[in-house]
Specification:
- The chain has 158 residues and is of the alpha+beta class.
- Strands 1-2 form a two-stranded antiparallel ribbon.
- A hairpin with a 5-residue loop joins strand 3 and strand 4.
């Protein structure tokens, strides 16, 4: 069933980009994942460091937990009530590639006047790391030579 403006219910989306954006396409969601990749896990850390309203943070955390991007763990500081921390799952960790691709795009096409805020590097060697396309044979492919083509579940050809 097609709804107004050619949109479909989440269940009907065939495009993996569209389905992914349904889960993590809101800016706060990706910023929460970014900060979780930096080691932040507590509500107060995320709220204070992102400057996000508590109600919005609660809603985004619930969405990310329901989607399997984050898992919620209880903890209790001495003399305090039980609270929850939020930790990336394997699925959440996999978003690192997406965030680094966005970072590289932003550094190239929308740079900060003060220079790069984050660098990507191999943790063991310190060598610069960047996102790229790798062929089945292990060769690095030029991005201009990579194209998107219809897959087996494509509803249309292009």
């Amino acid at each position: 069933m097609v709804t107004p403006a050619n949109s479909r219910t989440k269940k009907e989306h065939h495009c993996s980009i569209h389905r992914s954006l349904d889960l993590v396409g809101e800016k706060w969601s990706l910023l929460i994942v970014r900060n979780a990749l930096r080691g932040e896990s507590r509500f107060s850390e995320l709220r204070d460091n992102l400057g996000i309203p508590s109600d919005v943070l609660s809603a985004r955390l619930a969405t990310l937990v329901d989607a399997g991007v984050l898992e919620r763990r209880s903890y209790r500081e001495p003399g305090e009530r039980e609270r929850y921390s939020y930790h990336l799952t394997e699925q959440g960790q996999a978003l690192k590639t997406v965030l680094i691709a966005l970072q590289e795009w932003g550094d190239e096409y929308n740079p900060s006047p003060g220079g790069r805020v984050s660098l990507t590097q191999d943790a063991a060697t310190g060598q610069h790391a960047s996102i790229g396309f790798i062929g089945d044979d292990g060769s690095v492919l030029d991005s201009s030579a990579v194209t998107m083509v219809p897959g087996p579940a494509a509803a249309i050809s292009w």
